[in-house]
Design a protein that fits this description.
Number of strands: 2
Number of domains: 1
Largest sheet: 2 strands, antiparallel
Distance between the termini: 36 Å
Order of helices and strands: HHHEEH
Number of helices: 4
Strand content: under 5%
Strand order of the largest sheet: 1-2
Structural class: mainly alpha
Radius of gyration: 15 Å
């Protein structure tokens, strides 16, 4: 049961990570009411799903998502992770 739930969480992480790397609106807080933010996120999720269906070779080419090496059990990071690292300099973030 734990592995199933963990794998479902990775799917959401991959989908949202790709959306952040592709759509600039997710790069900072969305300045709208919570109700509007819900609608915006739903629209972008629908757009993401539509692009995956109609343009997957361009929108999410092979290697975009995290994958598991079935021989070793290790996770191979998807390309979206590098896209996000290029956009955001996480080394400059300071925790208090």
């Amino acid at each position: 049961m734990f592995n199933y739930r963990l794998s479902r969480a990775r799917i959401v992480e991959n989908a949202f990570g790709i959306m952040v790397s592709r759509f600039g609106i997710f790069e900072k807080p969305i300045a709208c009411s919570p109700e509007t933010v819900d609608k915006v996120i739903n629209v972008y999720c629908a757009l993401h799903n539509w692009l995956r269906t109609t343009s997957s070779t361009y929108y999410t080419p092979k290697g975009s998502f995290d994958e598991e090496d079935l021989d070793s059990g290790k996770i191979i990071p998807g390309a979206w992770r590098q896209d996000i690292k290029k956009k955001f300099d996480f080394d400059k973030l300071h925790r208090k």
